[in-house]
Design a protein that fits this description.
Length: 98
């Protein structure tokens, strides 16, 4: 893999690991936050979401066999799925005006 592709992979991974899931969750749970508060809450929530995903993926033999355990692909799929679910909830809430 070229160095440019490795750098892109690293940046995307860090964004999905440390920011995007928490940012989407903070949009759903906290409506009135400033930009710095939202960034801090997003990082904290992302860490919590990462830990919970790790517990679910490695919870027991059934989940480990079903998901393949904690692999790069299973973590990516879970992080993207959680982010998309939070984004969808946020969009639906904005459309309904709540």
């Amino acid at each position: 893999m070229s160095q440019a592709l490795q750098l892109l992979h690293f940046i995307a991974g860090m964004l999905f690991l440390m920011f995007i899931p928490g940012c989407m969750a903070s949009l759903v749970f906290f409506k009135k936050l400033g930009i710095l508060e939202r960034i801090a809450v997003a990082i904290g929530l992302s860490i919590v979401i990462d830990v919970l995903i790790g517990f679910v993926l490695g919870l027991n033999k059934f989940f480990a066999q079903m998901t393949g355990g904690i692999t790069e692909v299973s973590v990516w799929i879970c992080l993207v799925s959680v982010s998309l679910i939070f984004a969808l909830v946020y969009i639906l809430r904005r459309k309904s005006g709540k």
